[in-house]
Write a structure and sequence with these properties.
mainly beta, four-stranded antiparallel sheet
């Protein structure tokens, strides 16, 4: 059974850091594009970052470039999102996602992805 399990969310002050984890269960995440999305209350879901399976290249939304870093650990079958210099605008539920097809490129379109985690809440507030 394929599952994505997120963890690492929480409450942090502006300027602080968090590291989100996305553990893949039932498949080898190295073979798939894995993306992070977020959704704030009353807003549409937006793509945050993605890591491709072939060469490990990464993509970031303009709003998080220079502050967030996506990476993967093959040994633990986990994709991480390191978030630094957090701002109140980063407050949202964060989801990781993967497509059913292996070796595809990243996409910022949420409809490209078939498997989704349950989400983890990130709140940036003083």
């Amino acid at each position: 059974q394929v599952q994505l399990v997120e963890s690492g969310g929480g409450l942090v002050q502006p300027g602080g850091s968090l590291r989100l984890s996305c553990a893949a269960v039932g498949f080898t995440s190295d073979y798939y594009a894995v993306a992070w999305f977020r959704q704030a209350p009353g807003q549409e879901r937006e793509g945050v970052s993605c890591i491709s399976p072939s060469d490990g290249s990464t993509q970031y939304a303009d709003s998080v470039k220079g502050r967030f870093t996506i990476s993967r650990d093959s040994a633990t079958n986990t994709v991480y999102l390191q978030m630094n210099s957090l701002k109140p605008d980063d407050t949202a539920v964060y989801y990781c996602a993967a497509p059913v097809t292996a070796w595809g490129d990243c996409s910022s379109d949420e409809y490209f992805y078939d498997y989704w985690g349950q989400g983890t809440q990130v709140t940036v507030s003083s």
